[in-house]
Design goal:
binds iron/sulfur cluster; 400 residues; four-stranded antiparallel β-sheet; alpha/beta
Length: 400
């Protein structure tokens, strides 16, 4: 064991640690005890297949439910939240952007994506937080591990346990002071840190989770507003029906029955976050660990449909969108075009109907069928002649 074994951080020492971590740029700093575990309902969710093809969630399930498998000897979880709400004034500027040459509404991006990749920017703060644990509490570098979003840790469950917020019926972590707009990071540590209290002491659910909807009352706005009916129950999202999954994680064909519900959402979906009344209390974040890229919201659809690999790399360098790759973004742009586009998109869509990628061709054909109706054959005559891919041919036939 290490020098930190047996030490308990509490009282003034704990508050000094919280102050130091807050000064690094984290808007929330909370502590939870590992004892008791968290969120065993993950297993039920996986057994129901609601993770779609995100196989890594299945592979890491045991670690997610048992942090001891990630860091032997772990005793505490430090929850760190960064508020990415830009404030109402900036929000309007982002959404209204500039006058458009086309009448088509600009595609909408998940708000978090309008930043330089938070995985990268927050890691600097986490590295500094680790140093603080060493200097202030005697931890060694092997006494802690930190993650931003991508580690085998159930951030939202631990955050609810620590009182940072509560799990809403929308399955998100909702803070009383930051609404739905927090990036979460965690540090697992062998230090024993006196835990914070959950927001309201209620019996845990049968699975050992903090209850979903603790402070939702009778509200069901998020469940009612979901464009693709992705909530089989309060607090449970079926990724297979969720626009965030379909436009970001799914690398193939988006099920046809979901495409209309995607509307103008080209990357992710904030609907079940935006409608939440708890956002009324959100203050603008300090953004010390973030780098906003609001200009992305002004990109018009006709420009997105004509992106080249070079332009894609230029525009999306350093953002989370780069991981979607050009193929995924063009696919999503075709879906948006099919939902809101008009004849002015004809050149771009007919070009994409002859793209090297069958995934793009399939969605371009779908878009043209939606826009052109009886004139589809005229628009796509040349592309149709050379088509051999079954999935694309199914789009020409409109077969489900
Ligand atoms: Fe529904 Fe959008 Fe929320 Fe997914 S992110 S559950 S599609 S509202
Ligand atoms: Fe809860 Fe209503 Fe917010 Fe949904 S919208 S998480 S039901 S408060």
């Amino acid at each position: 064991m290490t020098a930190s074994a047996g030490l308990r951080v509490e009282g003034q020492e704990r508050e000094a640690l919280r102050t130091r971590l807050t000064a690094l740029g984290f808007d929330e700093v909370r502590f939870a005890a590992v004892a008791g575990g968290v969120n065993a309902s993950l297993r039920d969710w996986l057994d129901a297949g609601r993770q779609a093809d995100m196989a890594w969630l299945e592979r890491t399930a045991d670690k997610r439910m048992n942090p001891e498998l990630v860091l032997p000897g772990v005793r505490s979880v430090i929850l760190l939240g960064v508020n990415y709400w830009p404030g109402a004034q900036i929000e309007n500027r982002v959404q209204l952007a500039e006058p458009q040459p086309s009448k088509i509404e600009n595609p909408r991006w998940a708000r978090y994506a309008l930043h330089a990749d938070y995985h990268d920017t927050m890691k600097h703060g986490l590295a500094a937080a680790g140093k603080a644990l060493e200097e202030m509490a005697g931890a060694t570098p092997t006494d802690y591990r930190y993650y931003v979003d991508t580690g085998p840790v159930l951030e939202r469950g631990w955050a609810a346990r620590s009182g940072l917020g509560f799990r809403g019926k929308n399955a998100m972590l909702i803070s009383k002071t930051h609404g739905n707009w927090l990036f979460l990071a965690v540090i697992l540590t062998r230090l024993e840190i006196a835990p914070d209290e959950p927001l309201r002491k209620k019996p845990l659910s049968a699975s050992g989770d903090e209850p979903a909807g603790l402070l939702c009352g009778k509200c069901t706005r998020c469940l009612d507003a979901c464009p693709t009916q992705a909530f089989p129950a309060p607090g449970v999202v079926d990724a297979r029906r969720c626009i965030s999954y379909q436009t970001i994680e799914n690398k193939g064909i988006i099920p046809r029955e979901l495409r209309a519900g995607i509307g103008v959402r080209i990357y992710g979906c904030d609907v079940c976050l935006e409608v939440c009344p708890w956002n009324r209390f959100a203050r603008a974040g300090r953004q010390l660990l973030l780098s906003a890229r609001p200009g992305l919201a002004a990109l018009p659809l006709f420009e997105l449909l004509q992106l080249t690999p070079t332009r894609f790399a230029e525009i999306f360098k350093g953002t989370p969108i780069k991981r979607l790759k050009l193929t995924g973004l063009l696919r999503n742009a075709c879906v948006v075009a099919g939902n809101v586009g008009g004849p002015e998109l004809r050149p771009a869509l007919t070009a994409l109907a002859a793209h090297d990628s069958a995934v793009i061709r399939a969605h371009a054909v779908w878009a043209v069928r939606r826009i052109a109706g009886d004139e589809t054959g005229e628009w796509l005559h040349a592309a149709r002649l050379g088509e051999t891919d079954e999935a694309v041919l199914a789009e020409y036939a409109g077969v489900t």
